[in-house]
Amino acid sequence: MPDFLRALWLRGIAFNAAAPAEALIRLLDPVAGKAGPLMCEGRDLPCTVVDAALRHPAEDIRGALARNRFIDPARLAPLARDPSGLVRARLAGGPDPNCGFRLRYVRPPPDDILVALLTAQDGGDDGRLTAEEIRSELESSRQMPLSFRRSLADREHSGLRIRAAQSWDSLTPEQREELLDDPDPAVREAAEKADWMLDPRQVEAQLPDCDARGRLFVFATCALPDAVVDQCLADGIALPLARNPHIPAHAVARLARHPEAEVRALIAARPDLEPHLIAELKQDPDDGVRMRVRLRPFPRTWDEYSWFNWTVDHGPDCTCPIIEPDIHSSPEWFAACAASGEPVLRQVAARSPRLPAELVDKLAQDDDEAVRVDLACHHPLAPPRLLLDVFVTRPVHRPHLLTLPCFPRTGTAHLINHPDPQVRALAAAGPTLTDRPPLNDPDPSIRRAAAVNPSLTPETLETLLTTSHTAEGAAANPPSPPPASTPSSTTA
């Protein structure tokens, strides 16, 4: 048997949904090559296989399992204390789809895993990474939701309360006060350092030490002294100021008359806009400005203002990371947006993963395509038929949609002659395909997909196992040929 075919067969078996757990465990052996790590990272696994991988002596097996997005994250808890720092770092870095794109949504692991990674005193027995380097991986992984970050302020471990102070602007006023009065002097010191953002004098003192990016952050989020605000206006630094909830009324008024429509649009939706400015902006020559001022009663809080602006500024082809809405934005607010006659407000609602099922059903049939697209990409209860429709019409979202557990793998037969090869490939693998799968399609990706179709006969699979473009798909086909002629009889 050629080595290249053996490797394809083993990879196919690794992703065969009908492969017995015993066969999958054998693929963990190093002689199976890359099949074991690919399997541990790229598919859901039976509990016995997960247990075997967790106990496996090979670091690359445990490290691959640490990046798995299909397994319940709670099952991976032992890896948070793995003897290898690299394994811990891979768990901290989060799932990797291993297909050329970064996941838009990362399912957060249980709090105990996050706490274990954040409070570790070392980086593992191998000494290749420090505990702080692993924590840095976690910080950039998007695995810590805002609700968890806020919970750190109330944790018993003082190190977690110190870390809470690093998210100062996300804490409630009550939590900030508690950290400033914390019985641990190290926590109080961290809180006092963080509190500078809301003290104009300390902000002014910090500015000389900030780089260009840091200064823009300060201008957009911190309480600024009047002299700094005036200098920003004189220097033409308008966009960051327009987002800043702490700027004085005279600065808001100047920005409301700014020559750039983008600046006036940010001002138009502010919750603190005074009545005379509302009246002025209702007559603005720019459609976007007038729209935002017309809808400004909806963003009543600064959290809602940020969520509203994010939605308006990112159209239906946005592929930015999907984050949870701020917990200060009430379910009632999202429900009111869902019931609005304004499409952009229904988009706001469609982007909330907490929207109840009855409103999801309503928005799935919305007349506005952008609403339906946002719902498909953001809500876990979006109906499969909607996911399929968006897959066909919006190619930019296909990588994300294919990661969703509700994405349909059946009911695609009507797409088998679609002009787009990606759509045809989806249909080619569908088990409800009534015609013969397109094994002779000129596109190799479609031939590979067709080889996985469970309608194929054992005789056909025998042939496909000997061709490079179809061997892996045929080996992954659940009704694979008898053991005497399949890769399952190949010694791994």
In short:
This protein has 492 residues and is mainly α. The chain contains 31 helices and no strands.
**Percentage beta strand:** under 5%
What is the share of helical residues?
40-55%
* Count of discrete alpha- or pi-helical segments spanning 4 or more residues: 31
Could you give the distance between the termini? 14 Å
What kind of sheet is the major sheet? none
Runs in which pLDDT lies below 50 for 5 or more consecutive residues are: 482-492
What structural class do you assign from the helix and strand content? mainly alpha
| Shape, per Cα inertia axes | globular
Annotation, overall tally of beta strands: 0
Rg over CA atoms: 27 Å
- Mean pLDDT level: 91
